[in-house]
Each structure stands twice: as C-alpha cells, then as structure tokens.
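Structural prep section.
Before we set up the soaks we want a predicted structure of the protein with magnesium ion in place, mainly to decide which crystallisation condition to try first. Input record follows.
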Amino acid sequence: MNLPADLARLRFDARFTEALPADPLTLAQPRIVQGAAYSFCAPTPVPAPRLLAWSADCAWLLGLPAQPDDADAAAGIFAGNRLLPGSQPYATCYGGHQFGQWAGQLGDGRALMLGTVIGPAGLRQEVQLKGAGLTPYSRHADGRAVLRSSLREYLCSEAMHHLGVPTTRALCLVATGEPVVRDMFYDGHPQAEPGAIVTRVAESFLRFGHFELPAARGDTALLKALLDHALTTHFPTLGAPSRDAYVALFREVCRRTAGLVAHWLRVGFVHGVMNTDNLSLLGLTIDYGPYGWLDAFDPGFTPNTTDRGGRYAYAEQARVAGWNLACLANALLPLVEDASALEAALETYSDHFERSYLGVLRDKLGLPAQAGDAAAQADFGLASALFACFAEVETDMTIFYRRLARIAPGASPQAALEEIAPAFYAAPTEAARARFAEWLTHWQARLASSPEDPAARRARMDAANPWLIPRNWLAQQAIDAASAGDMQPLERLMRALREPYREQPDHADLAARRPDWARHAPGCAALSCSS
Ligand code: AMP
Ligand code: MG
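Run finished without errors. Recording the tokens verbatim:
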C-alpha cells in the first residue's frame, strides 16, 4: 500500500541515535540495560487501529495537514503497525527518584520514539508513541495504555499549549482494538478496558532521570555523551561542552523549571507524580498521568490516590521541583567536579521561582509591577490573605479570578461580594463574607494606590486567568462518551480549549463549577497511577 502524500513527506533525522551508544540487543524482553542510552525496539502491532482524534495544531508543527490525507493509514502508522521510511524506533534508558526514593532503572516502558522529525521551520520534534507494546524497560508491565489515560494525555497536552504552559504536545489518539486489563484502584478488581495509543511530540523527551541513571552507575562516559548531546542539540547558545557550559545548562534548567511551576500554580494544575523521571530537562510538562486541576482552591489538593502523604500536592510543587533539581545537580557533579558551582546555580532556582510566582500573582490580581522587596512582600501578603479567605468557604479558583477582574473600580464591598459569589460552592457564613469583604477592600485600596486604566487591567487579568481549563470531570465526560463510540464531546472540548482565555457563551456549561456528581467520582476527584 502506498503511503499517503502527507506522511510520506515526513523527514527523520538520526542525530540522537548516532550520537549516543545503542544497546547491542534489539529484543524487547524486559531487562537491565547498561552502557547504552537506548535500545532499538519495534512497536508491537495491534489488531484494529482506528483514528479517534487528530490535533491540527500539533500536526502543523510537523508539516502535516489539519486532517490526515488518509485516516486509516495514519491510524496504522500511529498505532505502530507500519513504519515510515527513515524511522528506526527506540526506547530510551533512564532512572529516577520515585516519591523520594532512588528507583534504579526505569526507562521508556511503553513509550517508543519513532524518531526526530525536522519540521517546516527546521524545528526538531521527537515523535513518540505511548502504549506501543513491550520494550526492554517495561519491567513487569505490558507496554500498553488504556483509552481513559491516553485521552487524558492527549487532551491536556494540547490544552496546556493553548494555556501558554510549556508542555509536550499530542498529535493524535488511536484506538487499538485490543483490550487492556487494569486494576484501576489497585483493590483486586482488574477489568478489561479499551486500549489506545497517544502520539506525543516534543523537542526532546529527556528527563532528569536520563542523567541520574548513568551517574548512579558511575558510567561517566555515558553521562557525558548524554549531556553533550543535550547541550549541543537543545541548548546550543550555551557554548561547546565544558564545565562552565554544563553549569550554565543546569542554571537554565533551574530557570525553566521555576517558570514552569509558576505557570502550573497560575492555572491550577497539579501534576500528581513529580518523580525525577517525570521532570523534563527542557522545562516542559511531561507525562500526564494522575494529574488534576483545582476546582475549589485547596493548597493540599492532589488527585493522585497513590500519593497519600500529599508529597505532590498543589502547593508542594515548587518545593518538590527544587528537590528534583538537587537530584539533577548531584547527577551532573561527576562532570562538573565543583559542587559549589552547582550549589550556587541551584540557589538561583528559588529566586527565579519567587520572581515568576510574584509576577503570576500580580497578573492574576491585577496588581501593577513594582520594584523592591517591600512591594513584593506586600503583594505576597495580599495573596496569602486571599488564600486564607478561600479556606473559609469552598471557592472555585478559576471562576473567582475571572469574576474578580469584573469588579468595577470603586464598587462597594457589597457589590464586589455579589460579583464573586458565583465562585462559591456553598453559601458563605457571615464570618466568611466579612473576611472576603475586608480582603476586597484591601485589594481595591492597593489598586487605587497605583492607578491603571481599568480596561487594560482587566485585559491583563483575563490574560493570566483562564476562563476555561480541562477540569477532571470534563475529561471524564469525554472519556465516557469516547468509550461508547462518541468522539463529539472530546472534539467540542478541544475546540473550546483552543481559546481558553476568551469567554465563549456557547460553551458556558464547560466553564461551570464542578457539578456535585463529580465531587467524589472516580476519574474526577481521585485518580490512580493505573493507566
Ligand atoms: P509513570 O509513573 O507513568 O511515570 O511510569 C513510571 C515507569 O513505569 C516508567 O518507566 C514507565 O515507562 C513505566 N510504565 C508505566 N506503565 C507501564 C506499562 N503499562 N507498561 C510498561 N511500562 C510502564
Ligand atoms: Mg513517567
């Protein structure tokens, strides 16, 4: 069968596999792989691939059309049943710290790189299937993925992009026609679920764990090869490989990670599994598993039922990212050989985070930028006082900030309270109303102290505060429909999420408070790592 013209145009570049040592074995059998950055490995064909969704925005990055020329051919290729010319699939080897403990070798257990495509503007994009079958890194698992988790990854990758949050992307979602057995809540009730594969796209899928594993094994040659590849390919402005360039790279990773976490806090995203194998060297959101979104603002919220201690809860993410960066610094030490240089770089992380987060809070609250520590402390204080109000009555974070932006300058406390009332999940007590009214008065005083054109301020706030986010219950509705063969709810959600900052009256139901049925529903309030 001839390849359709769109896919036949994809050009692959083998820089990664040519620059780095390959595992001499090519069988997919799970095992320990030493001295290699990756293993060549073929995808395992599936019985009945069917294209469920295709992202025109991501396709554009690769020079592919808004709709594939031939959906069945695309489904076959992005299910791994057929390889494109020039594509030599491989799974990469990495390790990681999981929940604070060193876990040893992990690797791409079900992700398989088709290769690096050189896009229309010359941009490099790695194209990867997730759920394409066993690899040497599958350990005790099956290398497959279920529809619910693949759809969630597809949806959120593209939504994050439109929200302006650095992220890996998703090209398409393919049903495999093969059931996959999962025990969703690890409670002894395994069930067959529909299988699916998501095609992910990113400039690089390198994780902190890619560097931790060779460092832990004392394999400095592999560590150096990986870091030199990362430096020359993804951070070319930092100079040729040298100790200084390695430190500069680490400093840049600190800067990007700080910015990334500030974005997560801005939109109310909780990653859910911030293990070092799930942190991207490029500062992208990577590996969408049991992630979630804040409905009501709650600093301790985590959607991940596996994380009982709340290690990766919403408000812990900045601290944990710093912990993960310390692991990366340790991994780079054998090459930099100067702990103080890495420590100094690591210290820039908290400054970067604080600055980014201050900017986020000021934009969310419509406060003007102001130099100086005193102004910064005052604005952090105003935000903390608001969070204390949120503790008084369950308040929808997304709706709150959009309503806040609508409060007219000089509005009475009563009128201001009425404006934000739709964000409350329950009727506030008198004490809660009083507390909010007091906060609103302080906030208005702060705005009045440095006047800004109200329309400009509202536009700035609305550009930082999304109107629409892919809340868990919306994803769950799209999953339920897709499981019954109806892709329209997902398509509608994806369409609305292309412009998440614009109020869209046709989609007002998608921007509503979490409905009561979703409060404790599986897939909405609670998610496990089972995927
Ligand atoms: P995660 O918690 O999803 O980041 O995964 C941690 C590790 O487990 C990674 O090395 C994954 O590749 C691997 N893994 C997770 N699920 C599967 C699966 N179904 N088959 C093979 N490997 C898996
Ligand atoms: Mg992972």
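Observations: The chain has four domains: 5-207, 209-362, 391-449, 472-518.
Flagged for discussion at group meeting.
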